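Renewal narrative, Specific Aim 1. Our central claim is that a sequence can be written position by position from structural information alone. The example that follows is taken directly from our test logs and has not been curated for this report. It begins with the structure tokens describing the chain, in the order in which they were read.
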């Protein structure tokens, strides 16, 4: 059994660790332990020195404030030292604080000024004749650093005092901080742009003020509150701290509205608990409250001890940052398919709550922090915000800890996890079949512009999913009346809202019958609505219509490799890949199969558009595959040199050069073809082209619609039909429906109460149809 270290040895170790923590916090702006851990080290050293006075050294960190200035900025000697405060963590310590003042001053009714203890950076502002002339950090309490230029960038710090009556020389003490909302916005932008993510608002404030270039400080969203004064010359301030704060407010300084005057122990503890309850909703971080004897005469009589005044005390809240160990990094799949990493940790108390899980935001954030299984980390919880890992303590990393990587398959459904180029988020591509996305899939599937199942709102969807009646969207088509009534009964019992008629056995069934009728009506639909209903990433109403128009057949669409979707105008590589990823997932295909088996049918199928035949060749396919260095010119050379995809796949590199490719391009193409997945995609795409070619009608069989190439805008209210119905009928005749009027608009259909679009059409001289003309045209051509 290892024996405890000797007091002298332990004291030396504590001093070393505290000094290192001070250096990291004050000089490097990169602390590696939490405030709670730091406080514990200091309290242990104080207790050790109290028990063994011979161990007390003049340079002990218990005798100093902050840290020695770094030398990066000019030193500023404080005319009145900026001292630290004694800390209290229990109610009894507050009672002892009040008792000592009462006994020393021989007063019963003690009046205190109480204020939130902001978690930022203490500074001193010097004013001469009302003008701001110098600003300094606290430093070691005696000497700070000149950060005047940086402080001038903080708009709420007055450059010239307001009003009149201020002393000739006035030093104002306060806290520079970063508001929570500003901190979150800064970090969110940093994550998006790959910049530096701030560990917490306090470090954001400290690091910002210590920038050598004031322009960098100006970019950070910093705020300030005044909480006291230092040197005062050539003038007199009020006799109490609270009155002085009121005077500072008159002179233009921001002072917290939460400051209060209270009496005795009960007043202090009542204030502490009140601020504690409000803490989560405050716009800034606080780590406790500060009590100060309100009258200056009493303060002077109480005096100081060591590095702290006897008349003031910091009453700390439970720490919002703590250190713990990551047991594993898991991922969560959200309702929209976003795959988010989170850390499972050893339990730790953070802000008074036991925390075992913390968010890691996204894979890029994990990589920036370099969080690994087994790491010791600093976890932060502020209010109701989900706890997050903000820093890794690299010195405590296990030697076998390996970098974390995002899983390639969804842990819920097994579908491929994909990431769009340039995006931070990863997604499960099993949109239709993933249980984690079930509610979102159902809601979209039933929506008006998809399968249009009237009466199936989100509340019913959530209950049907919760009670297991629906596992995927295809289960909608096997629901029975008994299922719906049982679901409603269970939901009402859960919510304790069961109507009296149900309790009495008189079950109202009309809503369920109507819903079943709506589900049955939706079985017959269009290809565009069906494709939109599947919830494919990036495929909305417009893209679904384009796919339906150009391919015309569900069985064809669901079997196409992704490069062939690029043959549709306005569909690029990103959207084509999203469609391909969705259709490549077996689970999604199985759901489509079940939908067809349960009676869903496409009523408007037709042969593919003959124009697709213009690009069914090897050269076009090679361009669509987005092979590195294979430009349209190089693809044309390859198309002329090789009979088909298989011939290209079998060709050695020198044959590629013979075909006219530069050596570098030939090597890049050969390397791409050597990857099995790429070779398989090339052959599958070539076979799909052949199948598509065989399905194409002759151009004469499919005449262009009378509105082919026309762009139409609808505005106002139509009496005979909804605008969506009118839009569909016009699109069936070849028109392209747009949402805004421009010079390229062919005509505008204007119903009752048409607004700005009609005005714009008239200004541009665009032809305008009324409803009578629209109906006559539709009757003539449909």
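The sequence written for that structure reads:
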């Amino acid at each position: 059994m290892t024996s405890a270290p000797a007091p002298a040895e332990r004291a030396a170790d504590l001093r070393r660790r505290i000094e290192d923590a001070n250096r990291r916090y004050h000089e490097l702006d990169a602390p590696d332990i939490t405030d709670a851990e730091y406080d514990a080290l200091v309290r242990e050293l104080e207790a050790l020195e109290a028990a063994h006075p011979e161990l007390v050294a003049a340079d002990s960190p218990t005798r100093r404030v902050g840290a020695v200035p770094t030398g990066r900025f000019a030193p500023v000697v404080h005319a009145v030292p900026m001292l630290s405060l004694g800390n209290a963590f229990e109610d009894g310590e507050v009672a002892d604080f009040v008792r000592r003042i009462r006994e020393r001053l021989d007063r019963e009714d003690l009046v205190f000024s109480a204020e939130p203890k902001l978690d930022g950076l203490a500074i001193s502002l010097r004013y001469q004749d009302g003008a701001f002339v110098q600003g300094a950090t606290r430093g070691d309490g005696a000497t700070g650093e000149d950060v005047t230029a940086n402080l001038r960038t903080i708009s709420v710090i007055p450059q010239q005092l307001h009003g009149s009556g201020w002393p000739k020389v006035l030093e104002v003490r306060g806290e520079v901080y970063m508001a929570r909302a500003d901190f979150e916005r800064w970090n969110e932008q940093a994550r998006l742009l790959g910049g530096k993510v701030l560990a917490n608002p306090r470090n954001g404030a400290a690091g910002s003020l210590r920038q050598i270039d004031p322009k960098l400080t100006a970019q950070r969203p910093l705020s300030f509150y005044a909480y006291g004064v230092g040197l005062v010359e050539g003038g007199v301030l009020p006799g109490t701290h609270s009155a002085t704060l009121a005077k500072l407010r008159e002179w233009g300084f921001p002072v917290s509205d939460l400051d209060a005057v209270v009496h005795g122990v009960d007043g202090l503890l009542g204030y502490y608990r009140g601020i504690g309850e409000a803490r989560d909703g405050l716009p800034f971080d606080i780590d406790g409250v500060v009590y100060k004897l309100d009258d200056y005469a009493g303060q002077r009589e109480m005096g100081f001890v060591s590095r702290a005044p006897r008349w003031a005390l910091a009453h700390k809240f439970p720490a919002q940052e703590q250190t713990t160990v990551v047991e594993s990094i898991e991922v969560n799949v959200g309702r929209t398919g976003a795959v988010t990493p989170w850390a499972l940790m050893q339990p730790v108390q953070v802000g008074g709550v036991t925390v075992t899980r913390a968010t890691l935001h996204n894979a890029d954030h994990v990589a920036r922090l370099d969080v690994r299984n087994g790491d010791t980390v600093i976890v932060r919880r502020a209010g109701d915000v989900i706890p997050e890992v903000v820093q890794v303590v690299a010195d405590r990393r296990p030697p076998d800890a390996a970098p974390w990587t995002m899983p390639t398959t969804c842990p819920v459904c097994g579908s491929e996890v994909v990431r769009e180029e340039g995006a931070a988020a990863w997604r499960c591509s099993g949109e239709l079949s993933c249980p984690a996305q079930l509610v979102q899939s159902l809601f979209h599937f039933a929506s008006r512009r998809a399968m249009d199942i009237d009466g199936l709102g989100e509340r019913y969807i959530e209950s049907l999913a919760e009670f297991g009646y629906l596992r995927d969207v295809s289960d909608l088509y096997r629901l029975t009346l008994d299922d719906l009534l049982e679901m409603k009964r269970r939901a009402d019992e859960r919510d304790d809202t069961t109507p009296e008629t149900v309790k009495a056995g008189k079950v109202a069934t009309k809503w369920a019958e109507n819903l079943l009728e709506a589900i049955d009506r939706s079985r017959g639909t269009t290809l565009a609505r069906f494709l939109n209903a599947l919830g494919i990433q990036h495929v909305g109403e417009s893209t679904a219509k384009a796919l339906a128009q150009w391919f015309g057949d569900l069985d064809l669409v669901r079997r196409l490799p992704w490069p062939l979707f690029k043959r549709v105008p306005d569909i690029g590589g990103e959207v084509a890949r999203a469609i391909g990823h969705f259709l490549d997932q077996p689970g999604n295909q199985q759901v489509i199969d079940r939908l067809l088996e349960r009676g869903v049918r496409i009523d408007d199928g037709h042969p593919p558009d003959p124009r697709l035949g213009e690009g069914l060749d090897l050269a076009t396919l090679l361009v669509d595959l987005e092979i590195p260095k294979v430009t349209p010119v190089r693809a044309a050379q390859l198309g002329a040199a090789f009979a088909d995809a298989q011939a290209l796949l079998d060709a050695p590199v020198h044959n590629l050069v013979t075909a006219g490719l530069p050596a570098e391009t030939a090597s890049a193409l050969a390397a791409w073809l050597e990857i099995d997945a790429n070779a398989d995609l090339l052959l599958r795409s070539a076979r799909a082209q052949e199948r598509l070619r065989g399905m194409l009608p002759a151009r004469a069989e499919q005449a262009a619609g009378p509105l082919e190439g026309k762009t139409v805008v609808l505005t106002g209210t139509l009496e005979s039909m909804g605008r969506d119905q009118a839009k569909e009928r016009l699109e069936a005749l070849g028109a392209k429906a747009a949402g805004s009027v421009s010079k390229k608009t062919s005509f505008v259909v204007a119903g009752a109460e048409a607004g700005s679009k009609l005005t714009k059409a008239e200004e541009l001289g665009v032809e305008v149809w009324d409803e009578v003309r629209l109906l006559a045209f539709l009757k003539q051509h449909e």
